[in-house]
Amino acid sequence: MADVRTYTLIYVVLLVLGTAKFVFFEIGISEQLAIGGTVVLAVIKSLLIAGYYQHLREEPRAISYMMIVAVFMVFLLTVAAGYSIQ
To answer: What is the pLDDT of residue 86?
Structure first.
């Protein structure tokens, strides 16, 4: 289990990444580039949260693979729902 210093460092990184997502839209770059950067930062933040705060780094690999499959299925359902709306 990680110590308080590690959790504090992860929290600061999450805070900086969250601020960076706001800054992307304020610095004057194209909206598509800002959205792409926001998506990349969101993935990084999700991995940090799942890895440290939900303790997936310490779990057996089978549980991590199960989580990856679950996220992929949610992605497929989202794509299918978006396709059916059109």
So the answer is: 67
Q: Is 55 helix (H, G, I), strand (E, B) or coil?
A: coil
SS3 30: coil
- Give residue-wise pLDDT tens across range 33-54: 999 999 999 999 988 998 888 8
In this structure, the number of other CB atoms found within 10 A of the CB of residue 63 comes to: 12
User: What confidence tens digit (pLDDT) does each residue in 62-71 have?
Assistant: 888 888 899 8
Q: Which backbone phi and psi does 59 adopt, to 5 degrees?
A: -85, 160
Distance CA 13, CA 45 (A): 9
3-state secondary structure of 59: coil
User: Is-contact 21 42, C-beta < 8 A?
Assistant: yes
Give, rounded to a whole angstrom, the gap between the first and last alpha carbons of the chain. 47
- What are the domain boundaries of the chain? 1-54, 61-86
